[in-house]
Amino acid sequence: MRPIRTRIAPSPTGYLHLGTARTALYSWAYARHHGGRFVLRIEDTDVARSTQEATEQIVAAMHWLGLDYDEGPIHQMSRLERYREVAERLIAEGRAYRCWCTPEELDAMREAQRARGEKTHYDGRWRPAPGKVLPAPPAGVPPVVRFANPAHGSVAWNDLVKGPITIANEEFDDLVILRGDGVPTYNFAVVVDDWDMHISHVYRGDEHINNTPWQINLWRAIAGPDAELPQYGHCPVILGEDGLKLSKRRGAVSVTAYRDLGYLPEAMLNYLARLGWSHGDEELFTREQMVQWFDGSHLAKSPAQWDPAKLAWVNAQWLKRADDARLAGLVREQLAGRGIDAGDEATLARAAGLFKDRCSTVVELADWTAMLFVPVAPSAADLAAHVTPAVRPALRALRDRLAEVEWSREAIGAAFKAVLAAHQLKLPQLAPAVRVRVCGRAQTPSIDAVLALFARDVVLQRLAAV
Ligand code: GLU
What we know:
The chain is mainly α. Helix content is 46%, strand content 11%. Glutamic acid binds next to loops.
């Protein structure tokens, strides 16, 4: 069997889009499943829009998701010589040719085609043919190089996701492969790279289906008719909740945005994987399970819909399973971002352990934990409902006792019991009043455990306000 080599080839014109992250994940898992190699290639030939910052963001997002690559990042702009060399060879072999059309000429060509009701296309005026006399190259126009795409026949491949696809060559004109400045276009650079990098499987978004015939024709021209091409798998787009293509205008679409919103990488990986792939009815799985299961089968043919509620559920499940000390580190970062110093390690980890069951994101966990460090503002409604005249004397007595006891969950619990007995109250009467005063909300986990997280002074001071 041919060695498995996959790649992800993002363009560094922005963040790592969720759709690209998902195909990166499939490519990575496929390579890992087969003990193959996974390559990161940066397609930076759109010089005006590519930035170093975007490359760094993409690398950081891949790192965060745990998609480790074996080779790269390989920048296409560092391979210009190689593309030129291949283009020259294609020209010498009559498979590509120089075209001196100016942009004005191309506009006029398309205009005339439109006027005749034709689909616009390059009319092949510089394409050499036996007996054809080409015009003299004009001076001062840097020529582009065009690929002499086969004029007839069709291109067929068995798509790993969509099944057999056939597209007629008539649909395709002679693609520019090298621009006037010597920079290759996407379809050409992709083929030279996939060939040089021995890529065996390409997973990418289905917006590239119409590029694939050009790429297959280019492959055959470059590598010979018998070359072993990569197998292509085109994954359907991810739709937003509104059924339209996921877009920045309607919510976060970058991997890093979800990191900042408090999602865990294992949850993101789990959710992205399920969005277009299944293994039985497994909803929660680890990175290792994914690698074990992902053999390229069971990829969905139809578009998946982004479901924030399900993502939140998946994240909540992974939060519950996450190590408390690790969550404490993430909460500390969140709180630092709000200018809050999160105190000692052990207490923060205990707080994370206590609150995590109630949270869907690290941001929510930080919201809960913040009450330990910054003043809370109970609502008037909560105060009126819970801090009633009937419980005020008990609250004062509790405060007095808490001032004396050893500061532990057990001792705090015992103080509650003593006060409840002395004031003939039940815990559901006293606890909400304490919660509202100390925590700023009427519901929390077990009140003795929660109070033990606070510094004693903070509790006494918040209870003193009764
Ligand atoms: N740079 C292309 C993209 O980001 C890569 C497509 C491919 O994988 O061939 O869509």
